[in-house]
Amino acid sequence: DALVELHVLRGEHGPEAAHPDQAFDSVLPGQDIAGLVCAVLVIHKSNGSTRPPRGSDKLSADGVAMLMHDDTLERTSNGVGLFKKKTAAALEALDAGVWKGAEFAGEKIPRFSAVMKFLHNNGMNANIEIKPCEGRESETGRAVAVLADELTRSHAVKPLLSSFSLEALRAAHATATGLPIGLLVGDYAREHDVLLDELDAVSLNCHHRCIDVDMVRHLHARGTRVMVYTVNDIDRAAELMKTGVDGIFTDNLDGMARHFPDARAGV
Hints:
The protein has helices at about 90, 110-120, 135-150, 165-175, 190-200, 215-220, 235-245, 255-260, and strands at about 5-10, 25-35, 35-45, 55-60, 65, 125-130, 160-165, 180-185, 205, 225-230, 245-250. With about 270 residues, the protein is an alpha/beta fold.
């Protein structure tokens, strides 16, 4: 099954997460990168939990892309069994909110297409992280790229496709050349520059532990933006901002927004 993680890029006055069960990520917007709205702070919207489940896109048994993080249904729905073995109709019949609380009862597992339309209608965009199952890297990259391209063909600002899987990114890039690519790695090394060029990548998304000023300057000089994950400590975030990074993925929504109000667009 195709597996994609959505990091929502939210406008300053955008709404909160649409579905508490899938906990879409929120963003404080920043720079415009090659037509892609990027973020100064990328906040994993947790709805009060310490570590939120991520909204990931999988294919149902009948080939419909829907958002669900886990491979199995038990943790975040009242269903049982493997997600990929269920049809879209069967999945949409499940309650995906009651696990969070009685006030969320009745929430449904959303379709990827519906989420993308919701984001567009509310001035939001997404970093779509492709997480292919083993052996289906190219297939997943192509499928995600086709769907993302179809859903955003008329949009001036396109979603970012990112992945740890080079094979998936290559397939996605070859399939939809108009969609921006983000190379997702652990620790950055200069050898990654070759891959950035091959993929025409607009950003490098890497672990924050490898960041220093020289690295950021080098990547900026070659036209590549730098996004780092996952930073919850305020002091560490401040250090990273001083290096010039373009985005910080974090679970600490309230803390980051409170300590870095100037990161908001228009401030």
